[in-house]
Amino acid sequence: MDHIQELKRKQQDYFSQGATKSVQFRMKALKTLKHLIISNEKALMSALKEDLNKSNFDAYVTEIGILLEEIRFTMKHLKKWAQPRRIKSSLAQFGSKSYIYPEPYGVVLIIAPWNYPFQLAIAPLIGAIAAGNCAILKPSELTPQTSKLLGKLISDSFPKEYISVIQGGVEASQALLREKFDYIFFTGSVPVGKIIMEAAAKHLTPVTLELGGKSPCIVHKDSNLKIAAKRIAWGKFMNAGQTCVAPDYLYVHEKVKEEFLSLLINAIDDIFGENIFERGEYTRIVSPRHFNRLISFLSDGKLSYGGQYDQRLLTIEPTILEDINWEDEVMKDEIFGPILPILTYSDVNNMIKEINQRPKPLALYVFSESDEIQQFILDKISFGGGCINDTVYHLSSPYLPFGGVGESGIGAYHGKGSFDVFSHEKSILKQTTLFDLPYRYPNTKDALKKIKRLIR
Ligand code: NAD
């Protein structure tokens, strides 16, 4: 793909001219991006409706508003973040001053998934711009209307040697990966994450991998069950469960299972309506392949709520499965759909052991009124990030870097985290020439004795 090589070369040339490095330039680009989003709100909403049947409310909250908030936060702090920071020097470096200079990597590649197709392409771009890079974006082929619109908006607003969108699926992605980038930011599945890292390794390109996995949600017997039910129903079933940090499955204490289940069903009816097919606003499953995979799980365990689907509309209603165990198909991989299996536990230690036998989750949620239980679970399980007495909400804070650990990802972004991801921190020691400490040189009398007083 010659045009990819050509585009990359143009971006490299542009970057080396240095224009993208000035803070003024970055602020102007962020302002342009903000304007582009605000003035195309309607077009974005209708593309998201066409691709995924997202309601305007969901489109605004999870794709548009969240980005505007991120841009606002970044613009407020960028000047400070971009400045060299003076830091301490140790006694052995007496006379010198130390600084960290954040500098852009250069030309970065951003590969995005389909589930929040606009947000997950633009959120990393905000960081790339803020840090002073040029960027090539590869949005998902599975949400063609949104990806097309994204391409048009970017090419109308930015010169292609600065920011560009390359459309296409696996082939386009792999053609891009053959090029040497200065940084790769990937959001997507674990198996593709491995392919990305392998391709990046060939050029020793640093990566951020925002991946997925099975995120547990624990409902302890002492939790506020009504609030737990509401917050879990919301976090699991928004976007039809196609959210990387949606609770994948529930671990409910057996003493409260029945009571919790009926509260959960009420909460689903309340938030999404008893008949989602009538309302016509429920997010659809992205493709027939994903749809068929999901409905194959419906025969696992016992259906305790939902289970209706419409093949033509690629829509599955919020569904709860009971009597599930770890051998069921639905427990083998990330579900990524509106199906919620419920496991029960009586012993906290055993439940933790089961979770720890699996890859480290991207998110974990604990509902409990006890500080001890909350702390115990946080101490015993490693996971990307999460909430106590809530679901998904941690993702929307610009103060909380968001990312996985182990198989759920490498690196974290949002807020200053996004600026940091796309910046190299150059460490600089500025030495004095007013004097020259003699004992650093081995030929000074008693150098070893003196240096030992400083370095020990
Ligand atoms: P995916 O891995 O199939 O695709 C992501 C991107 O990679 C797409 O742009 C796609 O074109 C490209 N791609 C696909 N196969 C490729 C290959 N063989 N070589 C190179 N590029 C390839 O993921 P998806 O289905 O779009 O998204 C769902 C997954 O993403 C879920 O696992 C979910 O948990 C995860 N996800 C994670 C986050 C996060 O922030 N951690 C956010 C959203 C989604």
Describe what this molecule looks like in 3D.
The relative contact order is 0.13. It contains 16 helices and 20 strands. It has helices spanning 2-17, 23-39, 41-52, 56-82, 119-131, 144-157, 170-178, 190-203, 225-237, 257-272, 276-279, 288-295, 348-356, 371-380, 416-421, 447-454, and strands at 85-87, 97-104, 107-111, 134-138, 163-165, 183-187, 207-210, 216-219, 249-253, 302-305, 309-310, 315-316, 319-322, 339-345, 363-367, 385-388, 402-403, 409-410, 412-413, 423-430. It has 2 domains: 2-211 and 407-428, Aldehyde Dehydrogenase, Chain A, domain 1 (3-Layer(aba) Sandwich); 216-403, Aldehyde Dehydrogenase, Chain A, domain 2. Helix content is 43%, strand content 18%. Helix 3 (41-52) crosses helix 4 (56-82) and helix 9 packs across helix 10. With 456 residues, the chain is of the alpha/beta class. The structure holds nicotinamide-adenine-dinucleotide.
Overall structural class, as computed from helix and strand content, comes to: alpha/beta
Poorly predicted regions are: none
**Share in helix:** 40-55%
Q: Name the beta content range.
A: 15-25%
Q: Which whole number gives the mean pLDDT?
A: 96
Total number of β-strand segments? 20
Tally of structural domains: 2
Instruction: Categorize the overall geometry.
Output: globular
Question: What is the CATH topology classification name of the largest domain?
Answer: Aldehyde Dehydrogenase, Chain A, domain 1
CATH class of the largest domain reads: Alpha Beta
- Radius of gyration over C-alpha positions, nearest whole angstrom: 25 Å
The name of the CATH architecture of the largest domain is: 3-Layer(aba) Sandwich
